[in-house]
Amino acid sequence: MLTRSITALLALLAGAFAALGEDQVAPSVEAGNPIRAVIELFTSQGCTDCPAADVLLKSYADERDIIALTLPVDYWDYLGWKDTLASPRNSERQRGYARRFDTGAVSTPEVVVNGAAHALGSSRDEIEQAIRATETALNSRRVPVGFWNYAANIIIEIGGTPDAGETKEATIWLVVVQKAADVTVKGGDNKGKKLTYYNVVREMTPIGVWTGRPTTVRLLRVEVMHPETEDLMVLVQEADNGPIIGAAKLAY
Question: Residue 140 and residue 79: Cα distance in Å, rounded?
């Protein structure tokens, strides 16, 4: 996997907002196949209850209108097995949601849906209920997002504020995921188990701010991802750990 620091990636993005040349005109943003839910699963290789949630997430990752992300956390490492995929940034993102939802503590497996509701990560019923509730609550605030592979570039187009929507500043997140990762756990409560994770978040980097106006970002594909092992998603998220009002998967 290509290793990137946030500083290096932000340096790369310095020229990303240059106007497209006449021979490299990106498609206009479209609302076709919109993403109806972004599901973030906070999980750990040291968590006894997490394997069931990891399997359930795979079923959502296979749906075209859902973005399903695995965010391994590191706060259970002291129990006897250091999670090989975990990042302290994932743990801090979950803590940010905990502060916003006023839950008092973090736990696994937990799912956050559309940045607006949380549920038990191993319960399909709770996740489906959260999807329905957030779809309804965020319907008037959704913004269309286009995300394309075009020549040597990756093009991101975000539409303007919906006519009935309220404009709030939102962070544009570029999310680099490892498509799949197999791990044999050699210690802790899951010792001896071979676990498979899908859409494992390796980088989640802010690449701009959406202020209600149509926005276009262009990136060089080879500087951002390894297509053989990685995928890209983009999220448009209000405030700090606020509702996700737009999202897209990279279209090849």
Answer: 44
SS3 string of the chain? CCCCCHHHHHHHHHHCCCCCCCCCCCCCCCCCCCCCEEEEEEECCCCCCHHHHHHHHHHHHCCCCEEEEEEECCCCHHHCCCCCCCCHHHHHHHHHHHHHHCCCCCCCCEEEECCCEEEECCCHHHHHHHHHHHHHHHHHHCCCEEEEEECCEEEEEECCCCCCCCCCCEEEEEEEEEEEEEEECCCCCCCCCEEEEEEEEEEEEEEEEECCCCEEEEEEHHHHCCCCCEEEEEEEEECCCCCEEEEEECEC
Q: Please write the tens of the pLDDT for every residue from 26-70.
A: 445 554 568 999 999 999 999 999 999 999 999 999 999 999 999
233's tokens: 């998603």
Pairwise CA distance, residues 24 & 45, whole Å: 44
pLDDT digits (tens, 9 = 90+) for 23-35: 344 445 554 568 9
42 neighbors 121 (Cβ within 8 angstroms): yes
Which residue positions in the chain have pLDDT lower than 50? Answer: 1-27, 31
Q: What is the pTM of this model?
A: 0.88
> What whole-number distance in Å separates Cα of residue 148 and Cα of residue 151?
10
What pLDDT, on the 0 to 100 scale, is given for residue 164?
A: 62
